[in-house]
Amino acid sequence: MHKPALVIGLLVALAACASCAEVPQNKTYQVGSPSMEPTIAEGSTITAEVVEPGGYQPRRGDIVVFDVPDTWDAEGQDQPRVYRVAAVPGDTISCCDPEGRIVRNGTAVDEPYLARTGATPAEIQPFTVPADELYLLGDNRGVANDSAQLGPVPVTNVIGVVKR
Fold first, then answer.
1. How far apart, in whole angstroms, are the C-alpha atoms of residue 79 and residue 56?
2. What is the per-residue burial (b if ≥16 Cβ within 10 Å, else e) of 48-57?
3. Sequence-distant (≥ 6) Cβ neighbours of residue 135 within 8 angstroms
């Protein structure tokens, strides 16, 4: 093979390899409840970066789209939901300090994005998030049916991270 043909062949192979690199895929979702207000209004369309099954690396504060776990007994409500990651595996979470803030790992968490509805947040007894699970809370705590009422969510149920 001549050198120019070899160089062209290598360039074609490199271009093909670069085009098959993983590119994050986005998907849109319609928000069907007020549980994330005021951050995300009911009826809004959001865009989430899709994660591979089991590929989500949990980060506190992320807003995630997830499949409802079987343990939530949400009969007839199998549409994906949207909540914020309040605690990751190993974190201990409770509610509330004297100012009504959640406490994570012994420290009160400032959450300026919360809806200020005057509703009392659900009491959360100290709970340590198990390995491979997440504690997800809505920003509108007075109406959200989230981990405070229904328990943690397996990390593998996360299907996307909302792009802000």
1. 19
2. bebbeeeebe
3. 85, 86, 87, 88, 91, 93, 127, 129, 147, 152, 153
| Residues 132/108, Cβ–Cβ less than 8 Å | no
Going from the C-alpha of 14 to that of each of 2, 7, 8, 23, 48, the distances in angstroms are: 18, 10, 10, 16, 30
Both tokens of residue 8? 């062209």
Q: What is the tens place of the pLDDT at every residue in 14-62?
A: 444 444 445 569 999 999 899 999 999 999 999 999 999 878 999 999 9
Task: Give the integer Cα–Cα distance in Å for 93 and 86.
Answer: 8
Q: Buried b / exposed e across 135-163, counting CB within 10 Å, b at 16+?
A: bbbbbbbbbbbbbbebebbbbbbbbbbbe
The model carries a pTM of: 0.81
Contact present, 83 and 150 (Cβ < 8 Å): no
Choices 1.10.1740.10, 2.10.109.10, 3.40.190.290, 3.40.50.150: CATH for 24-162? 2.10.109.10
**Residue written as tokens 């803030």?**
101
